[in-house]
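Figure 3 (text version): structure tokens given as input.
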């Protein structure tokens, strides 16, 4: 087993960026909370989520060779088109619903605007947990679809199978196979 570990510079950069961004928000909280509220309340946030979901699903369905539909209920009963529509709807609804829930909780906790009447701390925590999961689901699945299209893997080498007991040999190699 190979236990060689490789240091991930990109992950360190991401960690540093997230730490600095969180520190900046914390240091300027009185101003930052209004910017966050502006983003959460904006129509453009909802539009951005929907456009991102539509773009990711359509790009994946049109451009990806790995666009496999066969396992879903929508595909097996209604076909490729319906599966794409259901994927767009599911991802868009997960994203926009979670944004609305997070907006309500943020406004209630930060600005004391009552959005969830009768909700105690545990109830609000569960809404935060569920809505955060929905946002994570939306963003990771749509990003995964887009990454599959933008970063397609290179093809594996074609192998030539010879007659007899010889094992396959990659084509284009000038070196003879050890069993030759």
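Below: residues designed for each position.
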């Amino acid at each position: 087993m190979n236990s060689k570990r490789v240091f991930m510079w990109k992950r360190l950069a991401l960690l540093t960026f997230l730490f600095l961004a969180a520190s900046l928000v914390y240091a300027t909280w009185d101003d930052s909370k209004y910017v966050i509220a502006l983003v959460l309340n904006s129509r453009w946030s909802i539009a951005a989520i929907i456009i991102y979901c539509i773009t990711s699903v359509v790009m994946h369905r049109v451009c990806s060779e790995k666009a496999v539909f066969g396992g879903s209920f929508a595909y097996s009963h209604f076909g490729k088109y319906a599966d794409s529509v259901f994927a767009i709807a599911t991802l868009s609804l997960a994203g926009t619903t979670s944004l609305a829930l997070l907006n309500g909780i943020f406004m209630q906790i930060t600005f004391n605007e009552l959005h969830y009447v009768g909700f105690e701390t545990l109830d609000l925590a569960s809404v935060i947990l569920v809505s955060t999961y929905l946002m994570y689901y939306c963003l990771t699945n749509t990003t995964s679809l887009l990454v599959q299209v933008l970063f397609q893997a290179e093809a594996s080498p074609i192998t030539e199978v010879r007659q007899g007991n010889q094992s396959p040999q990659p084509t284009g190699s000038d070196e003879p196979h050890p069993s030759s």
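The longest strand covers residues 159-160.
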